[in-house]
Amino acid sequence: MELEDIMGPLHVLVENKRALAGSLILLGFILMALFGPMIFPLDMNPKFSLVYAPPSFEHPLGCDYIGVDILTEIIWGAKDVLTIVAIAGIITVVLGSIVGLVAGYFGGIVDLLLNTLVDIVLTIPGLPLVIVLAGLIQTRDPVSIGLILSAGAWAGLAREMRSQVLSIKERDFIEASRAIGIGRLSIIFSDVLPILMPFVGISFLFAVVQSLYASVALFFIGVLPFSTVHWGTMLNIAIQVSGAIFVPYARHYVIAPVIFIILLQVGLILFSYGVEDIFNPRLRT
Amino acid sequence: MKWIYRRALLALLSIIFTVVLTFFLIRLMPGNPMDYYIQILMRTGRARTREEAIERAKSLMPVNMNDPIWKQLIDYIVGVMHGDFGRSISSFTPVSEIIVKSLPWTVFISSVALTLSFTIGTVIGLVLAYKRGTTFEGFSVAALTIFGAIPSYIMAVLLFFLLTIIYPIFPMNGGYDSLIPVGFTFAFIASVITHAVLPVASYVLTDFAGWALGIRAMATTVLGEDYVTVAKARGLKESTIVTNYVGRNSILPQFTGLALSIGFLVGGSPLVETIFTYPGIGRFFAAAVSARDYPLLQGLFLVLSITVISANLIADVLYTRLDPRVKVGD
Amino acid sequence: MSLQEQCPNIYDIDNLTVEYVLRTASVKAVTDVSLDISNAGAIGIVGESGSGKTTLALSLLNLIPTPGKIVSGKVIFNGNKDVLSMKGEELRQFRWKQVAMVFQGALNSFNPVLRIGEQTLETLTGHETISKDKALERASVLLKLVRLDPERTMKSFPHELSGGMRQRAMIAMSLLLDPRVLILDEPTTALDVMSQKYILNILSELRKRLGVTIILLTHDLAICAEVVDQIAVMYAGRIMEMAKTEDIFLRPKHPYSLGLMQATPSVFGDVKKYKPIPGSPPDMFNIPKGCPFNPRCQYATDACRETNPPLEEISKGRLAACYRWRDVG
Question: Is ipTM > 0.90 here?
Answer without folding.
Answer: no
